[in-house]
Write a structure and sequence with these properties.
Length: 173
């Protein structure tokens, strides 16, 4: 399912146990483990299954519960076995799993460019957390219009990963 459908399903589930949404890292971990591999139409079924199995409280080892729910869904819908998991992303400015962004860095005295992994998880950069676009925008990043800008930044700061790590340090990830 899409990250949007998955997040909506989790939000509804969490809400029904009076729990807040987990942070983006946990959410993307759950998605990788047990969200990407089933179609959108499974969301309501999985919601109901989890509620039925764990009516009293939020289950421990939730990712295992999710995986189980997905197996049960496929058992109940064997004709869907051929479903090809496809990572679809509706995040604005996501290019194959990366946000190419820039931010003004007072310590450098100019706008620096970065590549930051998107929540959809189509591109991984080690253990650097994946982001929603809205959170990046709130943190002062903006979509990078020119290719030149990024090359400049990478030349100044080393590799793409170095640049992202600098950002990570600066933001206290
Ligand atoms: Zn994405």
């Amino acid at each position: 399912m899409t990250t949007q459908t998955f997040d909506r399903m989790i939000k509804r589930l969490r809400g029904s146990y009076e729990k807040k949404m987990p942070d983006a890292t946990i959410l993307s971990f759950w998605y990788d483990e047990a969200g990407a591999s089933v179609p959108d139409e499974a969301a309501d079924w999985i919601y109901a299954w989890v509620k039925n199995q764990h009516s009293d409280r939020w289950p421990n080892h939730f990712q295992d519960v999710l995986i189980r729910a997905h197996q049960e869904w496929f058992s109940a819908h064997p004709e869907k076995r051929a479903f090809e998991p496809k990572r679809i992303c509706n995040e604005p400015n996501c290019e194959d799993g990366l946000f190419w962004v820039q931010r003004h860095e007072p310590q450098f005295g100019y706008w620096a460019g970065y590549a930051i992994p998107c929540i959809c998880g189509r591109k991984r950069m080690g253990d650097i957390p994946r982001w929603y676009w809205a959170d990046l925008a709130r943190a002062g990043y903006r979509a990078k219009p020119e290719e030149e800008f990024f090359r400049y930044s990478v030349r100044e700061h080393g590799t793409i990963n170095d640049a992202v790590k600098k950002t990570a340090d600066g933001m206290g990830w």
